[in-house]
Every structure is written in C-alpha cells, then in structure tokens.
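Quarterly update from the structural biology core.
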Amino acid sequence: MKRRRLLGKKKNETLRTMTIRNFFNDACSPITTVHRPFYLHAPPHHLLQLPRSDSSEMEIINGGLNNGDLRGNSDVDDDSGDLVVDIYPLSSYYFSSKPAVASKEENETLADRAQRLKSNYDAHGMRICVDAVILVELFKHPHLLLLQSKNCIYKLPGGRLRSDESEIDGLKRKLSNKLSADDDDSYRNQWNVGECIGTWWKSDFETIPYPYIPASGKNPKECIKLYIVKLPSSKDFIVPKNLKLLAVPLCQLHENRKTYGSIIAGIPELLSRFSINILDT
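Predicted structure, tokenized:
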C-alpha cells in the first residue's frame, strides 16, 4: 500500500471559529473559481480532482493521496455552553485504496432489493442503520465526507447493524470496513463515536425517509441514525476501489435533496446548533 504526502511545511496551529448560521451566504464563492485538476506525484488513479466549474465536490478517486489528520470534537464549550466541533484541513490526511468490497446492492433491481428487505424484516424485525457525519476543512469551509457508488449514489459512511451489536459497535465496524485496512481487526479502538444528531424513519421498504415516524399506521420498517464521529490526530483512510470518497461543502448539500437525498441534504440544519472551529496545521 503506497501513500504520499503533499509538499509543504507545517505552520503554527491557529484557531478560527465560525458557525453554520453565518456560513451559507459566501461559502461556495472561493471554490467554483477553480477549474483545472491538481496532480500529485502519483499515477492517474491517485489523482486528487479539484472541482469542476459546475460542482464544488472534491473527489478522491479510488483513494487519491493526501496526508494528515482530521479530528472532530463535539464537546461543550465551557464558557458559552455551545456545542463545538473542531475540524482540520483535508490536505493533512493520508488516503489509499484497497480491493473492492462486494455489495448486495450493486447488481440487484429495485424489485429484488424490496424483496430482500422484506425477507430481512420478516426474519429480524425493523432494520436499523447507523451513519457517520465526518467534517473536514477545505477552502476555509466545512466539507462533509461522502462515499459515492455507481457514479451517482451518495452515501454517508455506515450501514446496517447486526442483530446482536450495539449502535456504536456497529458503526465502528462499518467505518473500518469502508475506510480502513481489511486486515485491521482493532476497529473498536479506532473510532471515537460522538453523539447522535438525528434520526430518520421509513414506513415501507422503498419509501422516502422522514425525520419523524410517519403517521401511516404501519410499524416502521427502517430506522436511520446519524452520529458525529471524532477522529484521532493521525489516521489513514483506505477506501475500496468500487467507491469514491468525496468532500462536499455544506452549502452544496443544503436543501439539495434532488442530488443527495433528504438525509444528507438535511445535515447542515442538524449542524446549525454547533459552533465549528477550523484548526490550521
């Protein structure tokens, strides 16, 4: 497994504080002016692709390489009582790739998926999924890490719980499966899962999720919980080759349900009660 580091010296760490409430007015303007890719000293599949003129997503193709650390912290500020999240630059992380992870969803039709979910519900009851909200700094603005499959489906890192595991342990297992080495079995100690910031529900197997239990008279078929994930100061991200890791600005997600779906598009509002500290290294 190869990894490379962007050139440059570390500067003294400084702290800038911002809130999501004051973020949306000017968040995208510095990003959309960049139109050409920036190549690292790596083969083409290790290209870090800067945003196109019609998009401000940052794509790491099959684990394109950067260096460094990202650490989220949803501690309470002792002086103000506000919830605080510390984020670090994307350029301070290491990224690499690993063999593709098989997925039941890749080749199944919608009818096959609905039948599979129904069979699982009959056998195990309501499906419970846990997803991670991981923020980084890019172009001086908060970005959310997303996984993309089939070049069009955006997902948060996470997935379905097993029947015998807790939400925290299940999320740690899923994060290790999608963002860590295959032979690393110490996932319980790798991820620091913070508080749950939102819960969504589905009343049927292929319905749109709602941030409340729908008044349909049916028992919920699926529950989806979002957790803030706090990372250590140094970590490698190792992404399966059949997935792309993206860093998407919060302003692009806000109310953009058509592209990202209701859950991801609603994350900026869920984060509005947090103050965000951008830490430069």
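Residues 116 and 205 are 9 Å apart (CA to CA).
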